Amino acid sequence: MVSMVADEKSQPQLLSKKAACNSHGQDSSYFLGWEEYEKNPYDPVSNPGGIIQMGLAENQLSFDLLESWLEANPDALGLRRGGASVFRELALFQDYHGMPAFKNALARFMSEQRGYRVAFDPSNIVLTAGATSANEALMFCLADHGDAFLIPTPYYPGFDRDLKWRTGAEIVPVHCTSANGFRLTRAALDDAFRRAQKRRLRVKGVLITNPSNPLGTTSPRADLEMLLDFVAARGIHLVSDEIYSGTAFAAPGFVSVLEVLAARGASNAAAADLSERVHVVYSLSKDLGLPGFRVGAIYSSNAGVVSAATKMSSFGLVSSQTQHLLASLLGDKEFTRKYITENTRRIKERRDQLVEGLRGIGIECLESNAGLFCWVRMGNLMTSQSFEGEMELWKKVVFEVGLNISPGSSCHCREPGWFRVCFANMSAKTLDVALQRLADFAEANGGCKGGGAPARRRLAGGPARTMSCPVGRFSWANRLTPGSADRKAER
Amino acid sequence: MVSMVADEKSQPQLLSKKAACNSHGQDSSYFLGWEEYEKNPYDPVSNPGGIIQMGLAENQLSFDLLESWLEANPDALGLRRGGASVFRELALFQDYHGMPAFKNALARFMSEQRGYRVAFDPSNIVLTAGATSANEALMFCLADHGDAFLIPTPYYPGFDRDLKWRTGAEIVPVHCTSANGFRLTRAALDDAFRRAQKRRLRVKGVLITNPSNPLGTTSPRADLEMLLDFVAARGIHLVSDEIYSGTAFAAPGFVSVLEVLAARGASNAAAADLSERVHVVYSLSKDLGLPGFRVGAIYSSNAGVVSAATKMSSFGLVSSQTQHLLASLLGDKEFTRKYITENTRRIKERRDQLVEGLRGIGIECLESNAGLFCWVRMGNLMTSQSFEGEMELWKKVVFEVGLNISPGSSCHCREPGWFRVCFANMSAKTLDVALQRLADFAEANGGCKGGGAPARRRLAGGPARTMSCPVGRFSWANRLTPGSADRKAER
Question: Which residues of A touch B318 (CB under 8 A)?
């Protein structure tokens, strides 16, 4: 027994380095804010003083549409087809190629969301248990340990876990700034590429989110052309995470990189070669508001990627029960058409409520046309224009104001003072409560610094425009911006 | 344009090494047999000459019990609780800690399957999208790139993909042989450990399947004691993949390593330390026959493993729709009690049908008491006692006889002549067809070599015992054997 204990003392490291260290990136303020929220969640009746969750990009605006459909289509939930049970078939279905009916319906739905300007071949779809898994699988397929992907900032905080933790890949930030509304430029890409080379990292690709999380903006077509030229010239990959594609609610609308690619034609060799290096990630978590069902997908025209990712999908298949339900739902064209129209209308309405409310307090947002959040500038509430000042304000907003928002630093934003504020995971009433709390806080802190009038006492009572507090030196000339990074599975 | 093409020619390796090479292990005959089956699947009416799938460890024997329960409990499928819709709650539920109701029910069910001799703490359960994912996540938690796990042979062919491919971990086989009915010995473990050291691999643990896939046997308590002593002395981990625990149909029954561990008591420091290095993998794919629903789990008392694996589970969460259904199903104690009893009775009945049928042809099986397959010795049908002979016979059995069985070589068995033959994924009638085909083949090939009488022409017509063909020199003294390796998600 003594020798056993002695042996144990000299035992090798008990866990792997991955498990033992915190490279999963979940210690960022983004995740810590959630923890605080969970300790004290707001409820209008049972806990009206609790924290309001504004750090969660959930879409709760259109559940009534889904519920009505489910009621009218009982076979979808009942594991039936034409009234007859398909329980046995579904219980056993574990082909990692996915259910053909579901993949066909998903391909059509993805095409519909792109105005039918892009056709999706179901055999190029790899199903995954959420986009988290899709992004990681793509990294496993494209990057070896120590290889790098360039990602425009600000980007989704979860990427540090999703893309790097288990794969050993590296992220090199492409710094975007407010000077041009956080739009991606060739110069910023070239700069990031050079920095990667300096670190002796082999750059394997660029990853963008379009629409951008956290910016809430779609990538302009010109930026996508520029990106394609960049990856073509460098001989590297482009991953476009398009999980918010169905949230685009205003002009100029969503343009997929696949649409731009298709317009180049596959007739010349360079374009054909390029099309093998462009990969899209999709999910039903945001557009349909179904994160609990864990449905993600990779779309790629690269046979090697499809083959390897399909094998990898055995580590995270979609439940056949869920595939059956969604094959039916997405197969109903009449429903999806109505859903997309009404859902984006409601997102815009809620976005407007947030933007106008914040403007009333003297707080400006980057002009958005997509997403379930706004990119909000709160520098005028900070005691110093630094990341320390940002953290100080963030803690006040979480603990004193009772709003869990996400600081820009957690999104690797290079400029202090920006926050991602989500608006679609709560009722309009709760959003009003949140805005009122912020108004009270701004007032208590002397209103907006930089020349604004003190914040209005009551927001819900009427138009808040009179309180507008200019952000000052910041130019909004280029409000509609480019690709940046992020995604889903918020926990 | 010219420079772009030139750049592309000098581009770095397009895909990662993982994606570009075949280290996923799916080129083995185990998987190739499936491909053949899929090209030409047997159907009694539409394709009576097709290949019968005997390479798939599915449990189709008790679906009627599940279907009856679903009919009587419509809320489970209908996303309702107490008649009221919980659709919104489920659609949004993506807490990677899992639904408490489901984890509680699963913990109780796992305990029930172990005769309530082991208690499971729900907070030590990490849910994963199937056992494939559970095993990989454990490897990520326990082993760094190049670290090794010892696995007794023969083991589940999928482990080469599941445990090694993306993690970079290595498998060092622990060679078990027919001399003692493939039972695990301390000598074999020590030998494997030495071989690992010779290869300069750091051994991080032992992984067993109990009940064993492909042997169809449970680990005797004495072997588990020996294993625990081994990992205790070496200061390494033990992973026990127990996804077939609910299939044990005969004495001496299933004993979990957790039961043996508990009996040692956690009072002394060595035992407490050891309990942090013992991890169990479970799944509902085999015991409930629900591989399509993708429900797996890790059970560990190691807080570091639970924490890291929980974060990793975001790459493969279980659909909340499925968690809701199964929380209800497994929460029904009356149902699970009846199900376990009846399901194991049916498995035994089908196993007996296979074993007796094979005996009638002159083919012997390792005596089994669990699993959805038998470990079958077919050396007497081979033209040479070599792996070439085994492959030759395997090809004949797949292409001429029309049965997809799995050759022992794909399970890393060191002795040629063994095959895994599954019996629970087909009707009794189809099993009869398969046995008849094999009888015809044996007869056409001069019957059993080694002294047996020619194979009986018709099996279904009556008892086949008269055709018994002794396997010869092989001793069956130690038929009930030890831990070996394998698992699930058969594709």
Answer: 294, 319
Q: List, in order, residues 6 or more apart from B364 with CB less than 8 Å away.
A: B358, B376, B377, B470, B471, B474, B476
Instruction: Write down the mean pLDDT value for chain A.
Output: 88
| Shortest alpha-carbon distance between residue B4 and chain A (Å) | 5
For B352-368, b/e burial (b = at least 16 CB within 10 A) is ebbbbbbbbbbbbbbbb
In angstroms, the separation between the Cα of residue A139 and the nearest Cα of chain B is 8
User: Distance from A21 to chain B by nearest Cα, in Å?
Assistant: 9
**What's the rounded Cα separation, in Å, for the pair A368 and B204?**
51
Instruction: Kindly report, residue by residue over A189-206, the tens digit of the pLDDT.
Output: 999 999 999 999 999 999
pTM of the model: 0.89
Q: Quick check: A437 pLDDT over 80?
A: yes
% pLDDT > 70, chain B: 86
Report the distance separating Cα B75 and Cα B318, nearest Å.
Answer: 19
Strand A170-174 relative to strand A373-377, pairing: unpaired
Task: Report the distance separating Cα A418 and Cα A411, nearest Å.
Answer: 10
- Determine whether B156 is an active site residue: yes
Contact A228, A238 (CB under 8 A): yes
Q: Which residues, 6 or more positions from B208, have their beta carbon under 8 angstroms from its beta carbon? A: B151, B152, B184, B219, B227, B238, B239, B240, B241, B257, B482, B483, B484, B485
ipTM, two decimals, is 0.88
Placement of tokens 């595939």 in the chain: A323
Q: How confident is the model at residue B446 (pLDDT cuts 50, 70, 90)?
A: confident
Q: Which segments within B88-202 are labelled E, that is strand?
A: 125-128, 148-152, 170-174
Task: Tell me which chain A residue has its CA closest to the CA of residue B78.
Answer: A77
- Give the Cα separation of B122 and B105 in Å (integer): 9
Nearest to A202 among B12, B96, B133 (CB): B12
Q: Residue B86 and residue B79: Cα distance in Å, rounded?
A: 6
- pLDDT, residue B10, reads 38
Instruction: Indicate the range of A335-344, A380-389, B81-90 predicted with least confidence.
Output: B81-90
A204 is a catalytic site residue: no
For residue B245, what pLDDT is reported?
Answer: 97
Establish whether A241 is a catalytic residue.
Answer: yes
The answer to whether the CB atoms of A19 and B140 lie below 8 A apart is: yes
| List of chain B residues whose C-beta atoms are within 8 Å of the C-beta of residue A79 | 70, 77
Query: Under a CB-based contact definition with an 8 Å cutoff, are residues A120 and A110 in contact?
Result: yes
Task: Mark yes or no for CB contact B314/A290 under 8 Å.
Answer: no
Structure confidence at residue A446 (pLDDT): 79
Contact B293 A4 (CB under 8 A): no
